[in-house]
Design brief:
Shape: globular
Largest sheet: none
Order of helices and strands: HHHHHHHHH
Number of helices: 9
Number of domains: 1
Length: about 210
């Protein structure tokens, strides 16, 4: 078969151009899908989930902060005014002396009312509460809050209404979940917090 001179070269060139254009289209669609595609659109369920977790974060944060305020000022809900910390009362003495039970009872009796225990307990309540309400330092809040809650669980073993499970363990699990899903980014300052230089250098502060 006679092939006109140069036709094979021209045909090959057109084939290469066609293949190149096809590859470019495929690559563009894979790496940068057009706006409005399903991957770019948040579903109603996903949005609702974000706000539910944000609400749970703030509710749990208020639980911690309220415990701090009540023990600090003796607001009369769990702590009488005369037993408030600012009035010389001890946030740990009453509960650890009369409420502790189970295998760790002796340990908690020994530290009940100690100044260092009062300070650690109160600062923990305040810091965890503020972090959760603002949506910052979620990882640190989850770890420290989880430790505090587990310690409170060990102080009342076995729980009153269950062989081993109570709300302290459930709250500890919820804290971990809030940190894992980035609950501080919705209705919180989590995104702004993550841009701070010190947080970028130390990601565990997120």
């Amino acid at each position: 078969m006679n092939v006109p001179p140069g036709s094979a070269v021209r045909g090959t060139g057109r084939d290469v151009e066609t293949m190149t254009a096809t590859v470019e289209r495929i690559t563009a669609n894979t790496i940068a899908p057009a706006a409005g595609t399903p991957r770019d659109v948040e579903t109603t369920g996903q949005k609702a989930t974000r706000y539910v977790f944000a609400g749970l974060r703030m509710a749990l944060g208020w639980t911690f902060l309220w415990a701090f305020l009540d023990k600090m000022f003796g607001l009369g809900h769990g702590t009488a005014a005369k037993n408030a910390w600012i009035n010389g009362g001890s946030p740990t003495k009453g509960f650890l002396t009369f409420g502790a039970a189970g295998p760790f009872k002796g340990l908690y009796h020994d530290i009940a009312g100690a100044a260092w225990a009062d300070w650690l307990f109160m600062m923990g309540l305040a810091a965890i509460g503020v972090a959760l309400l603002l949506g910052i330092g979620m990882r640190v809040a989850a770890v420290t809050g989880g430790i505090l809650l587990v310690m409170m669980w060990t102080a009342v073993l076995p729980p009153e209404n269950n062989p081993f499970m109570d709300d302290h363990l459930i709250y500890a699990g919820l804290l971990a979940a809030l940190a894992l899903v980035g609950a501080g980014n919705t209705l919180g300052l989590g995104r702004a917090w993550a841009t701070l230089p010190i947080v970028q250098r130390l990601p565990w502060l997120k």
